[in-house]
Every structure is written in C-alpha cells, then in structure tokens.
C-alpha cells in the first residue's frame, strides 16, 4: 500500500498549503476525563512573529489577495488593449486583417493612433472584476478544498487541488467579466457601432436586453476555465521546478527581488500554455459577441478547425506577457503588504513516517 502512495506522491509535484495546530477541541470521555484534540488549520509557513501583516486564510488575507487580483488583471489587460484589438479583428475578419502587422497598419490608417485604444474602459472594469474573483476566490477555494480532504491527501493530490480551486474561482470570475467583455468586443470589432462604453452599453441593452451582456458567458467559461486551470497549475509547478533545478539556492535564501524574477519567468511559461489551450474558445467569443442571434455551436461550426486558430501568434505574445506581469504584480502586492507566501512544498511529516522516509 505504501509503495502505491509513494508513487502517487512522486508523480504529483504540487504542494499542499502548510498546516499548523490551531485551537483545541475538548472531548468528554465516558469515565469523566477530558481528551484534548488539536485541530489542524491552514497557515503560512513558519515565520518570525510580526513578519506577516495578517494570518494566512483570514478575511484580511483574502481581501488583499482580491486587491492584488484587481491590479494584476485590470492594469495588464488595459495595457495590451491595442494588441487585443488587432487580435479580435483578425478573428472576426481574417480576410481584411491577415496578420498582426497588417492589422495594426489598417487600424492606424482607418482610426489613427487613438483607434488602438478602443475598448479600454470595459477592458479595465471587466478584467479588474475578473481579477478580484480569480485570485481572491482561488485562495479561498484552495484552502477550503485542502481542509476538506486533509493534509496528506492535499499533498498527494495537489495537482487536482490546484485545478479544482482555479476552476471554481474562474466560474465566478467569468460571470463578473461577461458584460464588459461583450461591450469591449462590440466596440473593437464593429466599426461605427460605438466608440465608448457609455455609448455601447445603452445601445446593447436597447437592442437585445440584458441577454446582450451575458450571451457570451458560456463561451467565456469554455475559454477562461481551461486557461485559468493551466495558468495556476502550470505556474505552481514551474515555480517549484525552477527552485529545484535552476535557482542555485533555496527560496529562503533568495532576496525578495530574486523571488519575483522567478515568479515572472514561471508566469510567462504558464502564459504560453494558457494561450494555446484557450485560443479556440477565444475565437468563438470574439465572433459571437460581434454577431446577433448566433450561438456558440453555430460559430464553432462555421469557423472550422483552421478558423479557430486565427490570431494565435498575437494571443501567445499577449497572454504570455499578460500572465507573467499578472503573477509579478500579484506577488509584489503580497510582498509589499507583507502577506503570507508559503515556500515550495514539502511532504508532511506524517506521510514521511508512513512511507518509511524518516528514521
């Protein structure tokens, strides 16, 4: 049995969050004596008292993680609006916008430099809300699921833990993002429809009602949930691999700046895989929000196997850069506000004893 457990532990390189003993439960025995049972709860890695500004898993911790998500997603997505605009136009009109450079050239010729910023307002609002839910809820679900299955299972099945936590968080994040994403795509891909969010939102509601803002939520789930699962799982694994095989010293001996460089590199690697996994659904979202009365399945059939990959190069550049910057900003917020940042994983002592790895 233990050999099987050992194999599972070896093939599953993700870490469970660290545990510490918390409050005690007192159970009254039949003979009248009391039995004290320690309660395990999640906590950050051991650190000198006063080093952290809050407890790992506290309301303050979740709130600051949500704030970090707002900054990381809102600012980065807004910064790459020109590239996103060209990418969307390649997806919905590949005959006119045949490449990234052609897309930028035509956009500058028709709309000027100012035209490259179309859709910045719904992008900033929408992705700020998405970042709040994505990163904040990820921390919530990660701790919740880890507590649910226990310390040893959380370590052995941590790949599934990270995937489940990120998928759960993104489900709610996309509901927050959908209205602004729909408005953004209308502004960017329908010439003459609207130039600003204040023009687009009332017009969309007048034409199709509230459904105009949420008809793309299912394709968003198709695009964003696999993207986010890859984003978090690949990032966590890459960070661990970098510290294990590339960085010449333990994380505890690295400066905060060195740790943030590792975060950026791992984020970019994760971003490349994210872009590839989620691109077909992204193409469907772009076309669907441009057209009235279409369904995701109809758009998918019409685009075909080749059509769904249009604009992939632009999206790899965009998402790779975005993901790296998002993780860098998010981790920087944690460093600045002195939030708990658990180090790379270690096998729980109880599991080591079961596997015969301790004397």
TrEMBL record:
Pfam families: Mito_carr (PF00153). It is a multi-pass membrane protein. Solcar repeats lie at residues 60-144, 157-241, 258-336. InterPro entries: MCP_dom_sf, MCP_transmembrane, SLC25A3/Pic2/Mir1-like. The keyword Phosphoprotein does not apply. Gene3D superfamilies: Mitochondrial carrier domain. GO terms for biological process: mitochondrial phosphate ion transmembrane transport. PROSITE patterns: SOLCAR (PS50920). Interacts with PPIF; the interaction is impaired by CsA. Inorganic ion transporter that transports phosphate or copper ions across the mitochondrial inner membrane into the matrix compartment. Mediates proton-coupled symport of phosphate ions necessary for mitochondrial oxidative phosphorylation of ADP to ATP. Transports copper ions probably in the form of anionic copper(I) complexes to maintain mitochondrial matrix copper pool and to supply copper for cytochrome C oxidase complex assembly. May also play a role in regulation of the mitochondrial permeability transition pore (mPTP). This is Solute carrier family 25 member 3. It comes from Eleutherodactylus coqui (Puerto Rican coqui).
